[in-house]
Amino acid sequence: MINKGCAVVTGASRGIGASIAKILAKSGYSVVLNYSRSEKSVGEVLKTITANGGDGCIFKCDVSSRDEIDSMISFAVKSYGKIDVLVNNAGISQQKLFTDITQNDWNNMISVNLSGVFNCCQSVLPDMIRRKSGKIINISSVWGVYGASCEVHYSAVKAGVIGLTKALAKEVAPSGITVNAVAPGCILTDMLTNELDEDTISSLAVDTPLGRLGTPEDVAKAVLFLASDGADFITGQILGVDGGFC
Ligand code: NAP
């Protein structure tokens, strides 16, 4: 397998992030798998990667902590020499009426889902700018485009990720770095099943023009494309992987 360099994937222990880590490793990247709590699960993901001939390692940290992110980025650069691809996938969700959202809920949503992206981008960019090369892929959401009832804070931060992506893409394009986002629709992961009942999940599948929920692999394939040479002239774009939802 040709080594394509190093990819850092946040939130790689489960769901979409685990699929992204596996597909990038399968295509030849050495992958740094970040997680915050699910130690056993991230171990299983790495086991699958190495069993298939891929390379990777695990780094535990909370994306909302700038110090911890700086440590992870230093670790990745020390281990692999440079970071070629950063995938900002780690995220949390919460279903609540807008009037019930506490200040703590709001701050937590911003810290993980938006400041987490800021922290990782700002930490990785000095090295990418020096090398005039790198690809950043942020995971937004269909709700950041469309807006979701009872997920106003989630929708707001995911819209923030879209704004960050478009603006940062313009700023770092002269340094040869691309910044894009994927906006997944309804993807069958813990995030969906922990927050929504079966009837709501079924109706989301019916509301999706392609007539089904997405899989983590559907999103991972789009990320792999944005990480590839095929996407060298694509930047500042928001790629919907939503079965036609938006
Ligand atoms: P998931 O199954 O709940 O997985 C979330 C991942 O994020 C886990 O690996 C978790 O790690 C990690 N994470 C959470 N908080 C973290 C923190 N503070 N620091 C580091 N890692 C943290 O969710 P998912 O469905 O795969 O979602 C992945 C991304 O896709 C999220 O950004 C989400 O908003 C977005 N998305 C999902 C859907 C969907 O329908 N599922 C739709 C649109 C967008 P630990 O378990 O170790 O904490």
Write the layout of secondary structure elements.
Blueprint: E1 5-9, H1 15-26, E2 29-35, H2 39-51, E3 55-60, H3 66-80, E4 85-88, H4 103-131, E5 134-139, H5 142-146, H6 152-172, E6 177-184, H7 190-195, H8 198-207, H9 216-227, E7 238-241
Helix pairs in contact: 1-2, 1-9, 3-4, 4-6
NADP nicotinamide-adenine-dinucleotide phosphate binds at residues 10-11, 13-17, 34-38, 62-64, 89-93, 112, 139, 141, 184, 186-187, 189-192.
Brief account:
The protein is an alpha/beta fold and 246 residues long. The chain has nine helices and seven strands; from the N terminus they run E-H-E-H-E-H-E-H-E-H-H-E-H-H-H-E. Strand 1, helix 1 (15-26) and strand 2 (29-35) form a beta-alpha-beta unit.
Helicity range: 40-55%
For the largest beta-sheet, the strand count, sense and barrel status come to:
7 strands, parallel
Instruction: Provide the gyration radius in Å.
Output: 17 Å
Order of helices and strands: EHEHEHEHEHHEHHHE
Distance between the termini: 37 Å
Mean pLDDT: 98
**Sheet with most strands: strand arrangement:** 3-2-1-4-5-6-7
Strand content: 15-25%
Spatial shape: globular
The count of helical stretches stands at: 9
Q: Bound small molecules, which ones?
A: NADP nicotinamide-adenine-dinucleotide phosphate
Give the total of beta strands: 7
Descriptive notes:
The protein is an alpha/beta fold and 246 residues long. Helices cover 50% and strands 16% of the residues. Strand 4 (85-88), helix 4 and strand 5 (134-139) form a beta-alpha-beta unit. The longest helix has 29 residues, at 103-131. The site of NADP nicotinamide-adenine-dinucleotide phosphate (NAP) has 30 residues, from helix 1, strand 2 and helix 7.
